[in-house]
């Protein structure tokens, strides 16, 4: 640093430590009063000059310190906002999503807004017989959100009737999570074959930023008229997946139709998915996951297996996402999107936020090399 500049600055700053103050004259005549007035006027001029110098000096020091502190905070938190502080899992019944709904640009844009909020989003009631609606939706999501990369994995078409079949589709951010395996439940349990109208579709995920790291999602959309039976059979699916992949970290999610007239309270004691204490039902019982004002039912659910997974969940984060209220839609406009609200839950994020997704310390070493220089400048 330049010594001359420092000395000059220090002298200027030291002059700011006192102010001019003329002592009043002891005499009381006109002569003394005139001298006193002249002294006060000279003092005012000098004080004005000094104030100007002091302000400039302190402004220089404050601006330099503030700039250096800002640079230091930037280096310590490179792309903090991009790194993100939450990991969101969602399940959304799209209500007959297919070619006709895909033709409505306003509906597709709203779906993109909703789905792009999630790191992983399970879509249900996908009836894309021609295989064009889902790719169009994915493209709309990519066009809407340029900050993430999106991929999807889908089940086969499922259903007992040839005229009505659905698919499960997992849409996920490939820069925050990876699909490491998938499994279509064959519905072949001895003595309980064909228990499901739409057999569960299972994916295994790796999400390094989360506390749980590696976990499984089991998707299920139950048949309303057979909800009790299918929910109980879902317990068998859970046990098979745990054994097959040797994992305890399993989440079950989807439109379970687990409320109102489809799941009578008297039948709940017969559902192992409810009675097993190792299973935690996260969406509050009094939640309304339906769009219609005339209904208030908690159909859509998220359930986690085991205390380890439950501890990896952000407490009280499981809830419906009321897109009608969020996007200021009328009930009619909201029903064009779906007759269900998506449900969601947040997982704890434990990895460093100092780096953007997909980067490392090595990528930013050159930036961190400036930290000692910044600290040295602050101490000068």
**In the CATH hierarchy, what is the architecture of the largest domain at level 2?**
4-Layer Sandwich
The CATH class label of the largest domain is Alpha Beta
Strand adjacency order, main sheet: 3-4-2-1-12-11
Number of helices: 13
Helix and strand element order: HHHEHHEHEEEEEHEHEEHEHHEHH
Specify the overall morphology: globular
Q: Determine the strand fraction and express it as a percent band.
A: 15-25%
The CATH topology of the largest domain corresponds to Deoxyribonuclease I, Chain A
Distance between the termini: 9 Å
Q: Would you mind describing this structure in some detail?
A:
With 380 residues, the protein is an alpha+beta fold. It has two domains: 3-70; 88-347, Deoxyribonuclease I, Chain A. The chain has 13 helices and twelve strands. It has helices at 3-14, 30-76, 80-83, 99-102, 105-115, 133-144, 227-245, 272-275, 307-311, 323-326, 331-337, 365-368, 371-379, and strands at 87-97, 120-126, 150-154, 167-173, 178-184, 201-206, 214-219, 250-255, 279-281, 300-305, 319-320, 343-347. The strands form two sheets. The protein has a six-stranded mixed beta sheet. Strand 6 and strand 7 (214-219) form a beta hairpin. Helix 2 (30-76) packs antiparallel against helix 13 (371-379) and helix 5 (105-115) packs across helix 6 (133-144). Mean pLDDT is 83; it is low at 1-6, 11-23, 54-58, 68-83 and 352-368.
């Amino acid at each position: 640093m330049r010594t001359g500049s420092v000395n000059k600055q220090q002298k200027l700053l030291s002059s700011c430590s006192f102010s001019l103050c003329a002592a009043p004259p002891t005499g009381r005549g006109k002569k003394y009063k005139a001298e006193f007035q002249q002294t006060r006027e000279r003092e005012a001029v000098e004080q004005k000059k000094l104030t100007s110098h002091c302000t400039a000096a302190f402004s220089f020091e404050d601006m330099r310190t503030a700039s250096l502190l800002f640079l230091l905070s930037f280096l310590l938190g490179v792309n903090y906002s991009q790194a993100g502080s939450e990991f969101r899992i969602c399940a959304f019944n799209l209500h007959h999503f297919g070619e006709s709904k895909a033709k409505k640009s306003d509906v597709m844009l709203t779906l993109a807004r909703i789905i792009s909020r999630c790191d992983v989003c399970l879509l249900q009631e996908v009836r894309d017989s021609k295989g064009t609606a889902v790719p169009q939706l994915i493209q709309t999501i990519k066009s809407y959100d340029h900050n993430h990369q999106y991929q999807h994995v889908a089940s086969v078409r499922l259903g007992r009737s040839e005229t009505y079949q659905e698919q499960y589709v997992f849409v996920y951010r490939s820069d925050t999570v990876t699909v490491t395996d998938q499994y279509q439940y064959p519905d072949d349990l001895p003595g309980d074959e064909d228990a499901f109208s739409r057999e569960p579709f299972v994916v295994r995920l790796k999400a390094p930023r989360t506390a749980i790291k590696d976990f499984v999602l089991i998707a299920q959309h139950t048949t309303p008229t057979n909800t009790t039976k299918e929910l109980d059979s879902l317990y068998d699916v859970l046990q098979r997946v745990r054994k097959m992949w040797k994992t305890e970290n399993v989440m079950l999610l989807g439109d379970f139709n687990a409320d109102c007239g489809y799941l009578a309270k008297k039948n709940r004691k017969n559902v192992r998915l409810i009675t097993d204490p190792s299973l935690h039902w996260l969406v509050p019982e009094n939640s309304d996951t339906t769009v219609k004002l005339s209904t208030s039912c908690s159909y859509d659910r998220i359930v986690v297996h085991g205390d380890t997974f439950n501890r990896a969940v952000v407490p009280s984060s499981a809830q419906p996402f009321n897109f009608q209220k969020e996007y200021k839609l009328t009930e009619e406009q909201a029903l064009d999107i779906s007759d269900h609200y998506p449900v969601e839950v947040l997982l704890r994020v434990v990895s460093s936020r100092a780096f953007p997704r997909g980067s490392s310390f090595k990528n930013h070493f050159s930036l961190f090399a400036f930290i000692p220089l910044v600290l040295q400048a602050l101490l000068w």
